[in-house]
Specification:
Strand content: 35-45%
CATH architecture: Sandwich
Distance between the termini: 25 Å
Number of strands: 9
Structural class: mainly beta
Order of helices and strands: EEEEEEHEEE
Shape: elongated
Number of helices: 1
Helix content: under 10%
CATH topology: Jelly Rolls
Length: about 130
């Protein structure tokens, strides 16, 4: 998990998870980014999740997804199909984040795709 990192100009910040994956012991939700306090200014945030293709393709295989929560309230919850992951490599979620918010980005998965690689990059612009 990554935390918030302020850019040198002071008007932007970023966070990234690196490549993550689970194993059979991991639950269906994997934390990717947790920021306890986004700072003293409101932010406009772009969240860009990325996923590797599944290791073994099965017709009923569940797809990876993303859950974004603000102050422990879910504000985005979505799962992506293989077609989206293959063709739309740059999925972007754009949000307004109030100052001093707790921001979490979680990966949604099932035991069928626990070992599939995933990650997230995030950039925030202070308003």
């Amino acid at each position: 998990m990554s935390s918030q990192i302020l850019l040198s100009g002071g008007d932007k910040w970023y966070s990234y998870s690196g490549v993550l994956f689970g194993d059979v012991t991991v639950p269906a939700t994997i934390p990717m980014i947790t920021i306890a306090n986004t700072g003293l200014k409101d932010s406009y945030v772009k969240i860009q999740p990325y996923f590797a293709l599944e290791v073994a393709s099965a017709p009923n295989n569940s797809f990876l997804g993303v859950l974004v929560s603000l102050n422990d309230n879910t504000i985005v919850k979505t799962q992506y199909t293989r077609a989206v992951i293959e063709h739309d490599k740059f999925i972007t979620i754009e949000l307004f984040i109030p100052r001093q918010s707790k921001l979490e980005v979680l990966s949604l998965n099932t035991s069928a795709n626990n070992t599939q690689e995933r990650g997230v990059n995030l950039i925030g612009y202070y308003l």
